[in-house]
Design brief:
Helix content is about 35%, strand content about 20%. By secondary structure, it is an alpha/beta fold. The strands form five sheets. The chain has a seven-stranded mixed beta sheet with strand order 2-18-9-1-8-6-7, with helices on both faces. It has a four-stranded antiparallel beta sheet with strand order 12-13-15-14. The chain has a three-stranded antiparallel beta sheet with strand order 3-4-5.
Length: about 400
């Protein structure tokens, strides 16, 4: 399509923002990028651009001997608001943050790692298009989606996959990073920590491990703990399931145990990368080969189940728009990459060249609960069966808590 041409969906998306049906990423409200920069600055990192909100948060943390940052994957604000039993989290709730878009773990965790908006850090979805392999990669697993081969075996370096370095080596305190044991040694965990991370077997024992690590140092510390349990349970059973409730209460106990073990000299900060929104069978859709859309693509779509990013053949843009809107326009907006940039959906800065290349030509965004799979991809078909998803712009997905205990 001609550069800067506007699709008809742009006005409808803006109306949804105006009505509050969807939430626009906004640097003017407290957000996940603010939180990353604030915690890093509070732990001694210098040279960071801070909003007034981030400056206040950083100042409140700087005097604490120990700072623990817990990322509770999938713990949306709406989920915490429903959980009356999470007394420690709710009693120490400082407010809410707006996460980044797409509200996908790979995207948001990279914003937390770098203190940058997705427009700059170039991780654009759970599956991100990697030019060096000509298609989508599962970023946190560091594997090509089509055949699960390691990106390292395909000649892709971590610096190419994640072009913006982690900000956490810039903190001036002794640093500790704890991840579930099965991912502690992964490429992404090493990128996030800029070095090795320690592994924990069970969340129940994590508080003791953190307390021991922190107190043994005898100096001011920063510790990061990644907790995937809420997200795992939500995908499997839905955001209102008993498993989710148990996982939230386990995070609550972790915070309470840390406060008891570390005392008043410590600050325990809890936030999340995104929330969750459930769906029904009627909300699942599939891009099938019979529709003709795959034949119009230069490569398989990337992104996630609620946000898909399309690289379209140069001669097929008009046909792609027509076919996509005919098949899925009632449940998905279709924007050009230029419109995504103009609307600031990936942040206030212009798209970095690598981000623009990875997004491709068009971005499809769910109007609500709908999810969309890609039939030729087994991974995409399987993901569609989950009971809850994220990556979209609904309040359930975009609102996350900020707890400071």
């Amino acid at each position: 399509m001609p550069e800067h041409a506007r699709t008809p969906d742009r006005a409808e998306l803006l109306a949804a923002f105006e009505e509050g049906v969807l939430l626009r990423p906004d640097p003017a409200v407290p957000n996940l990028v603010d939180a990353a920069r604030a915690v890093a600055a509070g732990a001694g990192a210098s040279g960071l651009e801070l909003s007034p909100f981030a400056s206040d948060l950083a100042a409140s943390l700087a005097g604490r001997e120990h700072i623990v940052l817990i990322l509770a994957d999938g713990l949306g604000m709406e989920m915490l608001e429903r959980e009356d039993g999470a007394h420690t989290l709710r009693d120490n709730l400082r407010g809410e943050l707006r996460t980044v878009f797409p509200s996908s773990s790979a995207v948001a965790l990279t914003s937390l790692a770098t203190g940058e908006w997705p427009a700059r850090h170039a991780v654009t979805g759970w599956w991100t298009h990697i030019e060096e392999i000509g298609g989508p990669a599962t970023m946190l697993q560091y594997r090509r989606r089509s055949d699960d081969r390691s990106l390292a075996d395909l000649g892709v370096s971590p610096e190419e996959a994640f072009p913006v370095p982690s900000l956490w080596p810039r903190v001036s305190r002794q640093r500790h990073f704890l991840m579930p044991q099965q991912i502690a040694g992964s490429v992404y965990s090493r990128y996030w920590a800029a070095g090795p991370a320690a592994g924990y077997r069970a969340l129940a024992g994590a508080a003791g491990s953190i307390t021991e690590l922190v107190k043994d140092g005898g100096e001011p510390t920063f510790a990061y703990v990644y907790v995937p349990h809420v997200d795992n349970e939500a995908h499997q059973g839905g955001p209102g399931s008993n498993g989710v409730r148990a996982a939230i209460l386990a995070v609550d106990r972790l915070v309470a145990d840390l406060k008891a073990g570390l005392g008043e000299s410590a600050a325990v900060v809890v936030t999340a990368d995104h929330g969750h929104l459930g769906l029904t069978a009627d909300d699942r859709f599939m891009i099938r080969t019979a529709y003709g859309i795959p034949a119009l693509l230069a490569s398989a779509p990337s992104g996630d189940s609620r946000v898909l990013e399309f690289h379209v053949r140069p001669d097929a843009h008009e046909r792609f728009e027509e076919d996509f809107r005919f098949a899925f326009g009632r449940r998905f907006y279709l924007l050009s990459t230029e419109e995504v940039e103009e609307l600031g959906l990936l942040g206030p800065d212009p798209l970095a060249p690598r981000t623009r290349q990875r997004l491709g030509d068009y971005v499809a965004i769910s109007r609500g609960q709908a999810v969309l799979g890609y039939q030729p991809s087994k991974a995409s078909r399987e993901a569609l069966q989950q009971r809850s998803h994220h990556a979209g712009l609904t309040p359930a997905e975009m609102r996350v808590p900020l707890v400071v205990a």
